[in-house]
Each structure stands twice: as C-alpha cells, then as structure tokens.
Fold this protein.
Amino acid sequence: MAAAPFSIASDFDYSIQATNLTSIKTLSKSGLTTIPSSFASNNLQDLVVVDPSEAEIPIIDFSLLTSSNTEEKCKAIKDFGKALEEWGFFMLINHGIPESQINSMMEGIKGFFDLSDEEKREFQGKNVFDTIRCGSSFNTAMEKVNCWRDFLKAFVHPEFHCPHKPPGFRETTFNYLAKIREVTKELLKGVSESLGLEINYINKAVNIDSGLQILVANLYPPCPQPELAVGIHPHSDHGLLTVLFENGISGLQILHNGKWVKVNAPHNALMVNTADQLEIVTNGKYKSNIHRAVLYSNATRISVAIANGPSFEDIVSPAPDLVNESQPQAYRAITYREYFRIHQSNALNKKSALDTIRIQN
C-alpha cells in the first residue's frame, strides 16, 4: 500500500545535523507550519491505539507491597507478578515520595530547559558515556527519522553528576534520586519474591547498591504536525526498572498485546517500565516493555525518567533457578557497560539491542 502523502519543509531543512540549532524548543518557536523532512515518518499509525478507559493498566500499591501484614503482602506480591508478566508496566501509588518533592523536581527540569541554547551548550556531550549530556533527538548519526525531543541525561549514581544550573537544581535532584533508589530496591525485592527467589536475590545479583542510576529528562515542544512526527521511537529501556512522571500532559503509550495503549496516570502516581536487564535476569519471564512518546500541536510535555540498572561492571545473566530443561537460558551473559553501549549507540528500534544477546534455542 502506498504511503499517504504529507507536507514537509523541504526547501529549508532545519535538521539538527545540518545547522547550528541546538534545541527542538527553539525550532518549535521559530514559527514553522510544517515539519522538516528529517522529522517526518510514515510509520506512526502502524498499530491500533487503545484509550486507557478500555484497558486495565495495572496499579500497584507500594504500601501493600511492603506491608508487615503477611496476608496483604502476599496478595500484593501476586498482583505485582501478574502485572510484570502480562504488562511489563504499572502505575505505582502510595510510594511515599511527597508530592511537593516531585513538583520541585519538575520545576528544576523546567528551569533547565528554559535556559538559553547558549547556556545549555556547556552540557552538550558527544559520547554516550559522558556523565552529563544534553541534546536533541536520540542518535542523529544513526536515525532515519529524528525525534521531536530535547533531553538531559546525567549519571547520578554511584557518583553524582548534575548540571549546576538553574540554582538549587543539584540539591533537588540529589534528594529526589535518593528516594527513587529506596523505592527501586523495594520493588526489586518484590520482583524476587514474585519469582520464588530469595527476597534480596536480584538486588545482590546486580549489585544494586553500586548500580547505575541515570536521570533522563525529556522535553517534547509543540509540533506543527504531530501526526507525522515522532516524540521518541518505540523502544525498551536498557536497565532494570525505569521510574517516570510527567507534567500533567499525557504522551506515553505502551505496547500491549499488539496494540498501543495510552497511559493516563492517577494523580501523584509514578509510572514504571520493566527494562531489558530485568528481562535477562528473569530469563524472559518478565519481559521489558516497549513504549513510545507522542506529540501535541498546542502543548509541551515534559517527562522525568529515572533509569535504574546494575553496576556497570557487573555481568548480567539469567538467574540459575529460572533456567531449566523447559526454560533454557534465553540470553547470553553480558556486562551492563557493554549492553548500555550497544543500546545507546544505535537507533532506537523496539528490542533491537536485546536481540543481539538473545539465544536461539
């Protein structure tokens, strides 16, 4: 079937690679009415999109998952395992992080993206291992279609790196990230229990106390043709669990049973994706979630994602107790550092990184 025709700005291409432009935010404010050719995609309507009211996205109550009441906790662990196996995604409520702290984090991120392009250029890294890096799209050297997205990435644990502006941003980020590590460790205990493993098995296996934690902030400015542009391409994340919140503008869609499902999170809930390292450790029992970001013509969406992974130097492989004759080893062992390099150095394409270490049994 022939692709539907579309109008793009071909006479004057604002490609990030072709000009000195450093942000999609600046491009969005430039007054263009059609998107540049480097941002146009024909593949956005490849699957059915399901409204959240038609899908029962799992909601996990953190207070029950960590309850001292044995009966409550047992049921919560069972529900948690079902959410991980069937969705690879859940919305976390009663997580104990004050709403004021989440709001302060969002204000800090807004403040960073409100800096001028010249100010942000100080943090414009070139290498995926740069401890602080901001830019646009994902990987323009590898992408056929660029993402309508500005980003800030910072390695925040085990060593803390963060931009020194705007004022107060470093302190706000440090405190928020400490809370997310506490929540993540408890969630991974729940994962272990749901699999019948010793409660701290995964935390110990991936050396979580020295694990890599990355702040990934995304700005999706208004787009003149949101039906043709990509916020971020469909992909799974590289770590164990990614914890996300947004600025009240819903734009996350998750892939479930061959359909895209819109996510509208409850007030003050955190959204959590299972990621590739968790799929490896569980030998494919809990699969990483594929997701994407969509755009709006009249709204700016901001998301703040915290990627939580193993120690960079750890070799990650399936838990021995989850490998047997009926479930042979599904992935080869690999250091997280090498996996991260593969994932971040290529174009985003669903689970293309995980496919490089998949064992064909």
In short: Confidence is low (pLDDT under 50) at residues 1-21.
